[in-house]
Amino acid sequence: MQTQTHPLIAPTLGTARNLTSFHYGPGGGQKIYIQSSLHADELPGMLVSWALRRKLAALEGAGKVRGEVVIVPVANPIGLNQHFLGHLTGRFETNSAQNFNRNFYELSALIQPGIEARLTDNLDANRTAIRAAMREALDAQEPVTELESQRLALQKLSYDADVVLDLHCDWEAAMHLYTNPDLWPEVEPLACYLDAKASLLALNSVGNPFDEIHSFCWSDLRGRYGDRFPIPNGSVSVTIELRGQREVSYEYAERDAQAIIEYLTSRGVIDGTAAPLPALEFAATPLAGAEPIVAPISGVLVYRCEVGTWVDVGHEIADIVDPLTDRVVTLKSTVAGVLYARHLTRFATAGLEFARIAGAKAFRSGSLLSN
């Protein structure tokens, strides 16, 4: 195992932060990149990364790691330092109000001017050429803020990975994941091992989140040049939502880390025989089919069903109780699917999106992610 340190731009005099990456395996095979807690207040992934490191150290010691596995347990040291009256606010940078998981460099746009001339009729040569163009484009960037330097450092670590796993969680949620529909055949085994209750597919959800800036480039290039040049899925990138913010336990971390190990074993990154593939309980659905449940009034939020459960059309999801007027508004699902996430708060403001249901039919467009 090798440890690398990646300095960030110092935001003020007398301060400095850095990213730390841990590299397992001899290299030369597949490259796997796994990071956690890009939203710094989403801590289950940090514990999963810790458990993964222990497993990988043992596997490496036994000579069973065939490729390179890179772990970045703390992907957002900036956000970890943002405390307001004792509360960790790790989703948005307080200086700019930017979401830490948005606005990564769009690789497709950066390499577009010169990539066509590098493409040939050889698929492997095209993978190498595209990754070389990505590296050159990232090397040419000149970040001016600490946040920009953090984004760039993470992309330089991950742009050439065959698999990119970004470990997150929601407020309260069942295990679920997000990925590109082009990648689903390669991601489905991971969803099975993790026992994902929802698998949400989108080519471009808008906003350049971390997982999408890896896979979208390859899909975009296939759309532009695929009729003339063979272009692979050069990055199987997935956002894994490890249930809710409060679901931090050794038991969950061990289970989730082992699921990832089984997936890597099934891909041949780790020597051995993967565990039998469990069945996926619920089919993958388009992210554009996810129904947001929005509060029409303010009041006390009382949930009527649990995350991870199937709901039919008309199922009662929650009540909003106004204790001043005795008014009770019951919100119902208009789609059938899994209630995969809900808000941690129990007080609704008018217009609050407090739950999401994974419906099978796409009906939304534009920006598909929460803020």
UniProtKB/TrEMBL annotation:
Its cofactor is Zn(2+). Residues 29-179 form the Succinylglutamate desuccinylase/Aspartoacylase catalytic domain. The keyword Zinc applies. This is Succinylglutamate desuccinylase/Aspartoacylase catalytic domain-containing protein. PANTHER family: BLL3975 PROTEIN. Keywords: Hydrolase, Metal-binding, Zinc. One of its GO terms (molecular function) is metal ion binding.
